[in-house]
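REQUEST FORM: STRUCTURE PREDICTION
Request ID: SP-0412
Submitted by: Lab K.M.
Chain count: 1
Length (residues): 256
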Amino acid sequence: MGDVMALIEIENLSVTFNANGRRVRAVEAVSLKVGEKASFGLVGESGSGKSTILRAICGLAPVSAGRIRIGGEAVQSPRGKAFSAQVQMVFQDPYASLHPRHTVDRTLSEPLAIHGIGDRDARVMTALTDVGLPTSFRFRYPHQLSGGQRQRVAIARALMLKPQILLLDEPTSALDASVQAEVLNLLMRLREERGLTFLMVSHDLAVIDHMCDRVLVMQNGRAVEELSRTALASAQMQTDYARSLFAASADRMLEG
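STATUS: Completed
RESULT:
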């Protein structure tokens, strides 16, 4: 990391659930650091624990061991207003994460109201424009929007409080391929314009390769290998697991 301060530091994080009477170790002793303005990817098969790490940061999954620090400070439980002003999450399925009976306007102005921020009209209009939606969409409901439009609203909502960090949980996997690229390009542009830090989960190495400077490969709740973008691009993996993931991803890209 050199002298750049790690904005996100996770040290020996473990998450254990009780499921049907047995203990499930979803994440086991994972450590990672994400520098300010960096984009870090978590990749692995379904059930590898990658999404659980994002949920643990947000306080949505129980931390059984280890430490999470944001900007050098340990996160508080429960996460308070200061946390949500700094860290926001964008979920995989924008239909599930947006309230079906709330207009776009209400969805976007709610975080401002909770944090006592005024000038809501202007901020909502700006937010829509920033994510490439017409301001006339303000009074639409989620069911009146396409999947890509809904995800743009979810991204706009995440950015309302001007956080430094976006946690992105498979943000395009529920979208059509053509729309996926648009949303990823939008995220890259916003990251550049606002100096955002991304911690992003995907099962798709092509997405991670496109978006991230570094990637942590996960398997069965454990960190297998951390790779730079250069190592990923030149297929310099140290482990068989990372190699097999990469090969499967390359095959899918050829088929696609």
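NOTES: The domain at 6-255 is CATH 3.40.50.300 (Rossmann fold).
Reviewed by: T.R.
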